[in-house]
């Protein structure tokens, strides 16, 4: 897919105030610092579109980016981030949960997982919760450039094996690097395929 245009539209803490034009949207979720905002910049080929930071907890709102005037990419706050204490964490959790459960335009969620780490309880529980609520999602492994290809494949295989302990079937899996542009075509094709279905 060719990205002809990508523009920031609006930031909100409430899904009810998000765009109401009914265009399909694809949202990125995962732990703080996993690379959600960077992936949006990589997919759109626009470096400063979504704000990124090496410090976790950068994205605090639901951010809509309109792509080709036809569909949205949505950058969400990370989950599980502790700096703001329990109250701040609960507030973010509520924003995320309401968005995921109530937002009708949300077509597919991408759950981002740092490819360097072993399966984390918080991610596994989050995906479990998505399953219980019938939310369609795909898994995106991030920061693939930080590992050698052998280690990367081992980690991904181990992750899949872990998922198959509880899931009968695996969701679609993508491997990406925002540094190198890896996985861009695959992700965009996947979105295009859903858009035209
Ligand atoms: P929050 O908004 O805080 O939840 O974080 P986020 O998930 O949006 O992460 P963000 O995109 O801000 O990236 C966090 C850090 O990881 C930044 O320093 C990025 O430069 C770095 N990063 C993101 N993706 C990649 C990648 O593919 N490769 C490498 N090497 N670094 C990456
Ligand atoms: Mg972010």
UniProtKB/TrEMBL annotation:
GO MF annotation list:
GTP binding; metal ion binding
Pfam families found in the cross-reference section: MMR_HSR1
Q: Does the keyword Nucleotide-binding apply?
A: yes
Q: Where are the transmembrane segments?
A: none
Location of the EngB-type G domain:
22-197
Cross-referenced InterPro entries: G_ENGB_dom, GTP-bd, GTP-bd_ribosome_bio_YsxC, P-loop_NTPase
Cofactor(s) needed for function: Mg(2+)
The organism's superkingdom is given as Bacteria
Enumerate the UniProt keywords alphabetically: Cell cycle, Cell division, GTP-binding, Magnesium, Metal-binding, Nucleotide-binding, Septation
Q: Which GO terms describe its biological process?
A: division septum assembly
Which Gene3D superfamilies does the record associate with it? Answer: P-loop containing nucleotide triphosphate hydrolases
**In UniProt terms, what function does this protein have?**
Necessary for normal cell division and for the maintenance of normal septation.
HAMAP family (alphabetical): GTPase_EngB
Q: Which PANTHER family match?
A: ENGB-TYPE G DOMAIN-CONTAINING PROTEIN, MSS1/TRME-RELATED GTP-BINDING PROTEIN
The family this protein is said to belong to: Belongs to the TRAFAC class TrmE-Era-EngA-EngB-Septin-like GTPase superfamily. EngB GTPase family.
This chain belongs to which protein, by name? Probable GTP-binding protein EngB
- Which classification does the entry list for the species? Bacteria, Pseudomonadati, Bacteroidota, Bacteroidia, Bacteroidales
């Amino acid at each position: 897919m060719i990205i002809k245009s990508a523009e920031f539209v609006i930031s909100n803490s409430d899904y009810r105030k998000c765009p109401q034009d009914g265009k399909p949207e694809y949202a990125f979720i995962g732990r703080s610092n996993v690379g959600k905002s960077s992936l949006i910049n990589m997919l759109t080929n626009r470096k400063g579109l979504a704000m990124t930071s090496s410090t976790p907890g950068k994205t605090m709102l639901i951010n809509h980016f309109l792509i080709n005037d036809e569909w949205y990419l949505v950058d969400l706050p990370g989950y599980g981030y502790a700096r703001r204490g329990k109250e701040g964490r609960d507030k973010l959790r509520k924003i995320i949960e309401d968005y995921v459960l109530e937002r009708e335009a949300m077509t597919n969620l991408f759950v981002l997982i740092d490819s360097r780490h072993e399966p984390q309880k918080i991610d596994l529980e989050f995906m479990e919760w998505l399953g219980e609520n019938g939310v369609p999602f795909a898994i995106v492994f991030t920061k693939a450039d930080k590992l050698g290809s052998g280690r990367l494949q081992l980690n991904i295989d181990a992750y899949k094996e872990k998922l198959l302990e509880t899931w009968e079937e695996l969701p679609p899996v993508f491997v990406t690097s925002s540094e190198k542009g890896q996985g861009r075509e695959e992700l965009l094709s996947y979105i295009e395929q859903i858009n035209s279905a």
